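Handout, section B. The chain below has 106 residues.
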Amino acid sequence: MFAHKLSMYLKNDGALAFKHKIETDIVPLLRMQKGFLEEISFLYLNGREVHAFSLWESAEHAELYNRKAYPEVVRMLASVIEGAPLVQTYEVLNSTIRRSVAAVSV
């Protein structure tokens, strides 16, 4: 499993607008991508710094997303963030997500 992390700063009082964009625009787009597993966003206590992780089945899926859909995600977020997001990709060493999904499907 691989994680794609976006680190960004929100415009002043942008947390609610960001949350709305994630829920109504970005998550539906992510769900259409092959290999997408999960998305989780963290808002730092200052109310402006956000870290958004998307989880992918494989490095290939994460890279395909990065090439094809990620530019659209940045366009969608432009009205609520300052500057460009910092992008990092990680290999996931441990997660309970797959176990939770497997338990639900049984």
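Note. The beta strands are 2-10, 36-43, 49-56, 81-91. Compare this with the example in section A.
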